[in-house]
Write the structure tokens for this entry.
Amino acid sequence: MTDVGRHPRIKLLTLSEVVDVKGYVGNFDVKIIKRAKYVDETACTACGECAKVCPVVRPDEFNMGLASRKAIYSPFPQAVPSSYLINIKECLGHNPAVCSKCIEVCDKKCINFHMSDEEIVEHVGSIIVATGLKPYDPTELDEYGYTRFENVLTSLEFERLVNAGGPSQGSLVRPTDRTHPKSVGFIQCVGSRSSRKGGEYCSNICCMNTIKSTLVLKEHYPDMEVKVFYIDIRAFGKGFEELYTRSRKLGVQFIRGLPGSVEETENKSLRIAVENSATSSLEFHELEMLVLAQGMQPAPSTQRLQEMMGLQLTPDGFYLEAHPKLQPVDAATRGIFYAGCAEGPKDIKESVTQASAAAVRAIRLMHKGEITTEPITAEVITEKCTSCGICGQVCPYNAITVDRKNKQPAVVNSAACAGCGTCSAECRFDAISMNHYTDQQIIGQVDAMLEKAADSKILVFACNWCSYAGADYAGVSRLQYPANAHLVRVMCSGRVDEKFIWEGFRQGAPVVLVSGCHIGDCHYIDANHWTEKRVNRIRKKMSKLGIRPERLQLEWISAAEGIRFAEKMKEMEAIRQTVTGQEIAETIELLTNI
Amino acid sequence: MTTSNVPKKSSGNENNARIGVYVCHCGLNIAQSVNCKQVAEGAADTDGVVLSKDIPYACSEPGQQQIKQDILDNGLDRVVIASCSPRLHEPTFKQMVQSVGLNPYMMEMANLREQCSWVHMNDIDNATRKAETLVDMAISRARHLQPLNEETLPLTKKTLIIGGGVAGIQAALDLADSGYDVTLVEKQPSIGGIMAQLDKTFPTMDCSI
């Protein structure tokens, strides 16, 4: 930690948040808000005189509220940076009539109430997302009595109590009477592996963390009775099984079964009822302290950052990697990498490993000092352009300028163009061609698909980043669906031009599906809004023409939603079966005569 | 291998394309549910296709060698690889065609694995029929492909790391020690994250800070 604080190449911004990310690989512009600490970080020597005189006492977050701190405080003794800060919401202020005690005692004059939040803009080539996790809050799992009984603790609270730097100097005491408990129980999978509350996934670290805690207890208090209630013990890593064996040899009891209820006894101990599935019997255990092995959840900032950077999430809410095996630290967005629990629950060793991998992936990208970009960009066919300006309005990147006054053809800034193709799809004059996804190329695919036995087929347009990847995920998961679904890949659903859909129906397609990223997850900021508008518009036209609008479907499918993709294909097939040969023939005739 | 000079199925080859089609078995991954030989033979008659083959592993060294040799021997100007998802091997095959002088954007893929053989297992007739259509679609698209050139843009040799827990710290140090500038942003007043709150850590049972 201290290495980070003094490294000449690391600019450390604490109490800071990323509020905006713009740009693209190699050239991201990041806006950061650095909140005011009201103490000069560089001048403060962390002497602590200020905190001594501060009259405001508040629960200490670092010690999970088991100790207190002042309104001016250092987060913890080894903090980096070590300087103090003021929680301005708690502070009584600098009016000498009210308080201002800290200002008076600070010899170095570090305290400055006129500081304000700073906005910092950083220009970077790559981004590593290492936003970590949120420990599961067991409040909702009330059968374990966390909110009702004081001697029921979370694993993180327990961690602070056995820590030599913690509120009890490492001596394990019960919150109710400050005595050493003679018996301690651990309940596993709190907020993990449950379809009811918390996550359905395994949080990965809780088994080993509990085993570690039992060893710590047995080391300090060899006579203590220690019991662990579990579903499975997952000791899969290097050196893990040895620790588990050691724990059992030291007399820790592992009881297979999660408690059904927890009650408090008169002396504030906990009486728990558990069905021991190893012996198939109902057991009661009385323990003086109970520790809940809380699972991991995605950090609260995950969704905000995901939307800001156009990233994808798994159904569990963690960040989705570009490929689960082959690109486990890359985001689908080029130039963005994941490290640590942001990508999924993992222990320290795995977090460190992934962090080093992410660093190397970033170096691999940056070391040449230049970046090659795909030439999949829009091009204006100047002789067809009427300078109507629609393309400029729909472009999510403001990459198109149109001089409407002077009737000059639209101009595409190819460095800013990300290649979604929305402009090309919205242009009514066919005046924008999308490189590598031209009208001709896509219509060629549609026609080839429908050349034979069109009435038996399902035409699907899928965006590269979410829906096409979701279809791949269905494949990787071996989810079976009807074999008549055929995908046409586009970079973004925004590229799906009205004429592609009409062409599909004209060539005899019974049903057409347009699929893209969920609203808010679009890889091209908000290009899929235009997809939605367009599909609704076409549906209305279909109704007017007497074509059943259900034959055109729109579905948002993310890269992680293989199941959703397979289900949608089955649904499409069910709709297809309702479309008669006569209906198709009528549609073909209608559209051919327009 | 089927080389064909017989009349073509459909027209539309205004670019006078010379296409090579490769239907990959991917071991049994594709070949188990798709009759690859039949798909390759079916594609041979398509307009613009100069040669069409099935191949055990297109991505393997011998597979790539064979395709590259064919491009040179037959003057192919575009290639269709019917194999796995382009999200996996598109860069591989782009590089392959580039190494023998073709523009990388003159390569098209048909996804016969993730979107055909793996999702229509044990349905060899329908999976093969779908594979044939997917290859036809790719050929049709390939006929209209245009060479494109990548653009080189400047890059900032600097990394933003969001989060100063153990992962963010490790990544920051690795990058900074390698000579790259790093901005490390942490929401809390100190770096350290959850790990700083821990007492001992498994499996070594040493202290966390």
